[in-house]
Each structure stands twice: as C-alpha cells, then as structure tokens.
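User: Can you help me understand a structure? I only have the sequence.
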Amino acid sequence: MSTDDAGTAAGTRHTHEVDVVVVGAGTSGCYAAATIAEAGYDVTIVERKTAEEAGHIACGDALKGADKFPEVIPKSKIEPALTNTVVDHGQFEIPAEDAVLDIPVPGELAVIDRKLYGELLIEGAEESGVEFHYDTVVQDVLQDEDGRATGVTGIRKGDPMRYDGELVIDGAGALSILQDEADLSDATFDTNVRFSQFSSAYREIIEVEEPVDYHDALVFKPTKRSAGYLWYFPRTETEINAGLGFQMNEEPMKLVDDLRDDMRSRPEFENAEVKDKLGAAVPTRRPYDSATAPGFMSVGDAAGHVNPTTGGGIAGAAYAGTYAGDAAIDALEQGDVSEDVLWSYNERVMEHFGGRYAALDVYNIFTTAYDLDDLMALLASLPADKLSEQLYDGKAEIGLKLKVQTAIKSFGHWGTLYDFYQTKKLADRLTEHYEEYPGGPDEFGPWQSARDEIMEDIYETTGAEPKY
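Assistant: Let's start by predicting it. Here is the structure, written out as tokens:
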C-alpha cells in the first residue's frame, strides 16, 4: 500500500507501507525477501541501480557449493547462469618457488555469469511475490524513540521516498550506509567494523582467442604483497574473469596497472578483448558477532558473510538471507521484532558457516605478520589436501609424518612453519568457542569476552597488529 505525504522542499514524499523493507537486490537480499514473501507478507526490495543493471555486481564469479541453494529460489532457477561446471580444483602459482600447487576443493564448484545470475535471482524473488523499487538511493534509517528500526528514507529518480515497515533488512553490501545512519549503540549489533577489515578488489571479463589450458581450474597467484591475490577464473574456455585484491590495511595497490602487468606476462591474453570492468569492496574479516538490532538485521556482505581467505560469499549469502527471512517471519507472527526473537538468525549463521569463517580469518591475520617469500615457501611445503581442508573447512588433522615431511620441504623457513602450527591450534580453539555461540542476547557479552581472550593469544603468537 502506498500513500503520499505532504509536499517537501524537494517535492512530494511518497510513503510505502510494507511488512518488511529490504535494502539491496543482491543474493542475500533476494533470498531474505523471497522467504518472507512466500509466507504471505508484503516485502519490497529497494535497489539503487536501474532494473537493467541490478544484477551487475563485481565478483570473482567462482561459486563453491553450487549444488546447495535454499529451495525458495532453487538451483534450477539460476542454473542457466552456471557457465562452467567442469571446474573442479584450484591452481596456486608460486613464482618464487617455481611451483604450481594443485589444491582440491571440496563440494561442487562452478563459475558463473554474475549479471545473468543476478537477473535470474531477481526474477525468482519476483515470482515469490517480492516488489522491486529500482533507482532508489537510501539515505537514512527510521527509528522510534526506543531505537527500533521502522523503515528507511531515500530518493527515487529525484523524488523523496519513505518506506515504513515492521522490519528493515540490510543487504546493501560491504560498508553499508545503513549501519552508518542507524543508531545501533544500544543493541548487540557489531559496530566494531573498520574499512581496514575489508579488501579492495577489481576484475575484468576478458575474451581470449584460444581456449585456455586451465579451463577446469581456478587459478590463484600472489600479488606483490602478502595480504592479497590475483585470480584467473574461466567462465568458459575463452572467457576469463581476471582480477585481484588487497587488504585495505595495506599500502594501496594500483589494481588496474598491477593486473595488466601480470596479464602481459601470460601469452593467453595476447590480443584479448576486455568486455567488462568493475571494482568493489569485499569483507575479508570474521562475520559480525551479531547482525541484529530491534527491527533490524544485516545479511550477506553487509554482515561479513564471506570466506575471508578466498572472498567467496554467494552460497553463504543465500543461506544467511534465508535464515534472516525465517527469523523475520517468526517476529511478524509474534508481533515482536526484538533482538530476543531475531536472535535465531545469528545462531543459525554461526552454526552453519560463521564459526568456520571466524577461524579462517585467523590465517588472514597470520599473513599480515610475515614476509611474502616466507609465506610462499610455507604454502609450497604444505600438503595440498590438508591446505584445502584448512582453507575451506577451517580445520585439518595433520599427523606427525606429514609434519616431518612438511618440515623437510620448508627448510630455511622453520620459524614461520612453527608459528603456523601454533596459529592453527589457536584457530581450532576459536572454532570450538564458536560452537558455544550463545542462545540469546543475555549471554552475548561473556561469550565475546572469552573470544577476545583467544584473539589476544593469536596476536601474541603471530606478532600481527590487532585487526579488531
């Protein structure tokens, strides 16, 4: 339902009254909105881009967990966007060691056409009953005297807009403006967020003349500093997503120039055509400790729901959106949008992938404290299957025999190897702590304090600067 407010200096403010307003038409926003709409509630997604550009998002296009998507927008809906389904492993190029490390990747992999995927996702949400308002730039979060979020305001094609709802779901991406505008100081919502916990990334879609010999692999390569990597992900045998990124606490890289420099050294890119260019900020931090406040939830990139070692976030965002949608339905049915009722969303995220991602972030912290050559030598010496388990699952069992073999291969870098094993023990300890994530807001403070003690041990072991 919509009505018109009295005229304002900028024109007539249009007010829309809905059950839930979702900001952002990305993966998490679409899954959250579709889940709620399927239950019969009125949901509107407001999106700053045009309808034609809404699915066009900077992304590496690699999708881990391509076989597992929530049923509200099933895999069959987005399957036409999976352009490469033969990719089944990673290749990590280590020039300093003259080595290429083949890394098995557990689960189903695919490389996608991200724009088509986004368009199909939006189509799926529309089929569930979600209404979309494009060309809408959100400017503020509305809150009542108790701090409960009650809607958002913005501008749509020059006209002031207001969206009133029982709940606001923030799917506005990394470093979301909603979190700057809302007063979340009295909630459990994680406000320990800084730009240095994110990466700046850039990618190009390149059409090459001949099929690449790595059409079945995701290719990774170190950048000029440790906290970042280059990638070459084949959408097809001749269409490559080429990109790179760096942690924002590092000295800035010249992303375009550095990517072009590396591409000039690779014969497959001779006479290649650049079809698209795009950049973005990517969370390379642990998931938010809590992504809830009264009447408010954040999902996907806006809540740090990204694997911090790889930057992959599509599957996690789909499930986070679904979990937020389920929590929203519970809240609407109870007529209670407090954190107590919304808390199940935090619990499900932490149980599914949040604790694992928090442990993986420990390895990001580790890399900031060591020389790049030491790290590459360490990487080349580690057993590929165990490295894969650690990168994707957060845990790997490494027996005495493998430790001895690794020590022999890493001769000259034993100090780094020792610190790595000590760090791994702390990452495992952190994983166990996240398995005890609290069942409600009242237990949240003590849990955070105990987690922070583990983090202090991690900083002491690695010598890294505190990240949080």
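Now, to help you interpret it: The radius of gyration is 22 Å. The chain is about 35% helix and 25% strand. Let me know which part you'd like to focus on.
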